TrEMBL record:
Its main location: membrane. GO terms for biological process: transmembrane transport. The lineage of its organism: Archaea, Thermoproteota, Thermoprotei, Desulfurococcales, Desulfurococcaceae. The keyword Transmembrane applies. GO terms for cellular component: ATP-binding cassette (ABC) transporter complex. It is found in: Membrane. This is Metal ABC transporter permease. InterPro entries: ABC_BtuC-like, ABC_TroCD. It holds the Pfam family ABC-3. It comes from the Archaea.
């Protein structure tokens, strides 16, 4: 892939801001933001390629419910950790919803019903957890997000998930583009769509649980969608969109972290605002270019 001027400029800006953040920010904060940015920056183009925006919008609701239920299941059946229970429950719900749509149900109907069910159930589950159990962290951090409270163990899990997801995204990205363009054509060439569907749905479940405490329920679906939309505004070509999506995720996340430190505001909020401003700016550039 040839590096054009825009990509080169973005690379230089990323190097500068990463080095600056590395110097002044505690390493746990730095690594948490860096690997979360890589994770949702890599997943975002895959979601866009397969046109499953509905699932990205539902994933935070599913994750919030799964985390609350995971605490309950852990206290009743402590055979798995809270995180493991949450992950299992989240994947089950995502598989059910995704395959229901894949088998012919209307995505809008399923999305509306799922949001209603998960939102209502989350309120009940969270209220029960708060009244019944003593937990190690503030549930508000799951709703609002606070990457600065990430523990070392959570950071290790995030790094592991980020490496796995990024590697597998590179592996399945080309075929996923073909599936998104013409699923019937790929079937005729012997490609097992269900294999790629399961991988993608699993990635979304993993990312949703891993990122919930870091960026929060409120912003999660936004940050799963915006990086690829920003990249699409700037460039053409599937792999260019992927790389620019990751670069913009890293840049907006690092800049948002630095702004939050200087202004003493919530990091998740500042990252979201920076991502929105970048999206709006690139949208204007796209309109002017094609206007």
């Amino acid at each position: 892939m040839n590096i054009d001027n825009k990509t080169l400029l973005l690379l230089i800006l990323n190097v500068i801001i990463i080095l600056y953040a590395f110097i002044i920010v505690p390493y746990t904060w730095f690594l948490t933001i860096l690997f979360s940015a890589i994770l949702y920056g890599a997943l975002s183009p895959l979601i866009s390629a397969r046109r499953i925006y509905f699932l990205a919008a539902e994933a935070p609701h599913i994750s919030l419910l799964s985390v609350a239920l995971g605490i309950i299941f852990y206290n009743v059946l402590p055979i798995l950790s809270e995180f493991s229970w949450a992950l299992v429950l989240s994947l089950i719900l995502i598989y059910v919803i995704a395959f229901a749509i894949r088998w012919g149900l209307d995505p809008d109907v399923v999305t509306s019903a799922t949001v209603a069910f998960t939102a209502s159930s989350s309120i009940i589950a969270i209220s029960y957890v708060l009244s019944k159990y003593s937990i190690k962290y503030n549930l508000w951090s799951i709703i609002l997000g606070d990457p600065l409270l990430t523990t070392r163990d959570e950071l290790y899990v995030l790094i592991g998930i980020s490496f796995i997801v990024f590697s597998m995204v590179l592996y399945i990205f080309k075929v996923s583009i073909y599936i998104g363009i013409d699923a019937d054509y790929t079937k005729l060439h012997g490609i097992k769509l269900i294999f790629y569907d399961i991988i993608l749905f699993t990635f979304i479940g993993l990312a949703s649980i891993a990122l919930l405490k870091i960026i929060g329920f409120v912003l999660e679906h936004v940050l799963l969608l915006l990086p690829s939309l920003i990249a699409i505004n700037l460039t053409e070509g599937s792999y260019k969109v992927l790389y620019i999506s990751v670069l913009f995720s890293i840049f907006s996340s690092m800049l948002g972290l630095l702004i939050s430190i200087y202004l003493n505001i919530a990091p998740a909020g500042s990252i979201g605002i920076v991502a929105f401003i970048l999206y709006f700016a690139t949208l204007i550039l796209k309109v002017r270019k094609h206007g």
